[in-house]
Structures are given as C-alpha cells and as structure tokens.
Amino acid sequence: SLPARKGAASSRLPFREPTWLVALITMTEQSQPPSGILLVEDNSLDARATFNAARKLAMADHIHVVSDGQAALDYLRNADHQRPMPALVLLDLNLPGKDGHAVLAEMQADPVLQTIPVVVLSTSSDEDEVMRAYQYGANAYITKPTELDGWTDVIAGINQFWFSIARLPSG
C-alpha cells in the first residue's frame, strides 16, 4: 500500500494522485453534497471501492449505502428531518430482487422522487443497456472502472459535476 496523501485518512487501496486530480480534489473539498448521496450497490467490493474513493475526497460522511432496490426505495420514501432526502442516487442496475430499472421506473412515477438525479454505475457498457437506463429515467450512465485508481477519478468527476457545475433542485 502506498502512503496516504498528507492530511488524508490512511487506506488499504493504493492511490496515485495525478496533478490534475490534486487540483480537482481541492475544488471538490469545497463542493460537498448538501444532503448526501445514496449508493445502491449489492457488490461489496464495488461499494467499498466507491466508499474508499469518497473517503479520499472527504465525502465519505455524505454517503449512505443500501444493497438492493427495495431498500433504496424504502430509504427514499422514508426520508425526513432526521435523514434528509439525498441530493443524488448512485445506482447499480443488477440488484437482487427489485433491479435498478425497476427503481428508476418507480422513482420516475413518484412526483417527489422523480426530481432526484440518478447516476447509473454499471459493469455493462452494452449500448442497449445504456439506452434502456436512459429510457427509464437515468440522468447519467457510467461504466464502473476496472482499476482502483479509476474509482477515485469517477467519484471526483461525479462530485464535481453534480455538486459544483449542475444546479440541483432544492428540497
């Protein structure tokens, strides 16, 4: 394992910081999610890689993880003052029980949930799968990285776009 960057929590994942990423991390640290991110992921390795990338970007405290589609919908429908509605959902498509497409369909049918942006994170790069996700209401589709360093780049890019560049609905 490589030494952690100065000021960061240590991690078991190796991490190299390209110069452009150091600048992005600096910008990202000033653009934290206002009410958090819901990660819907049943693969523990992918969930851990996402969480570790978020930790490197000082975002880990803003991520809540559930492992299936029904748990995601329950979480979203039971948001309240104690647990506010997330500002963004990161959604795997291949979930046990209610899959990601069903989650997207139910979110689109619910006037409260349909305004929450959903970024699909999938291992598939199949064009039909991408098209289907967008047809069901995904706001973005990202193929999961195959290397550990790629996770940090992906999560940094998601954070930068959705919480610094894009304007999200309030409440």
Characterization of this structure:
With 171 residues, the protein is α/β, with parallel strands linked by helices. The protein is built from 6 helices and 5 strands; from the N terminus they run αβαβαβαβαβα. The protein has helices spanning 19-28, 44-56, 69-77, 100-109, 127-135, 148-165, and strands at 37-40, 63-66, 88-91, 118-122, 140-143. A 5-stranded parallel beta sheet has the order 2-1-3-4-5, with helices on both faces. The protein is globular, with a radius of gyration of 16 Å.
Highlighted features:
171 residues; alpha/beta; 5-stranded parallel β-sheet; globular
The number of E-state strands comes to 5
Cα-to-Cα separation, first versus last residue? 41 Å
Low-confidence stretches: 1-14, 18-33
Read across the widest sheet, the strand sequence of neighbours is: 2-1-3-4-5
The general outline is globular
Number of helices: 6
